[in-house]
Amino acid sequence: MIRAFNKGFTLIEIMLSVAVISGLIALGTNAFFQVVSRVAVANAEESFQSSVRRAQLLARNQTHNTNWGIYLTQDTSSITIYAGDNYATRDLQLDESIKIDPTIEFDQSPFELNFAQISGTLTDVSSEQESITIVSQGHSRTISIPSL
């Protein structure tokens, strides 16, 4: 009597394989979103610092013969480099806007820094503007304003 061997997988083997693959996907997804969050915070920090440097450079060079500053707000998810003594009285035609990830939050919003012509020093730094913290999904970085 010839006995036929079944070729293929049993239901238990298939269920076990699906469970292992699902577990790996769940771990990978979590790690992926953590990396994306860290990258978003790093990109926002870099955008903030480069915006500060650009405004400072424009003020030192006396571009358009005025002070320059930066303004950021949660509402627009952007950093605005503006010409003028403050954001409210700025020259709208000279605005430069840098978009940031909408998942990014700042501990101080709205936030404004203004730089004087020639020297490029901050014109008015209140005690509440000593630092700014950038946060996204549990990851954060704090930037010290005097060190800019």
Account of the 3D structure:
With 148 residues, this protein is an alpha+beta fold. The chain has one helix spanning 11-60; strands at residues 68-73, 78-83, 96-99, 105-106, 111-115, 131-136, 139-144. The strands form two sheets. The chain has a four-stranded antiparallel β-sheet with strand order 3-2-1-5, covered by helices on one side. The chain has a three-stranded antiparallel β-sheet with strand order 4-6-7, with helices on one face. The chain is rod-shaped, with a radius of gyration of 26 Å.
The N- to C-terminal Cα distance equals 87 Å
Q: Radius of gyration in whole Å, from Cα?
A: 26 Å
Unreliable segments of 5+ consecutive residues: none
Q: Give the total of beta strands.
A: 7
Mean pLDDT across every amino acid position = 86
Order of helices and strands: HEEEEEEE
Structural class: alpha+beta
Number of helical stretches of at least 4 residues: 1
Beta-sheet strand percentage? 15-25%
**Gross geometry:** rod-shaped
Binned, the helix content reads 25-40%
- Mind summarizing the main beta sheet? 4 strands, antiparallel
Strand order of the largest sheet: 3-2-1-5
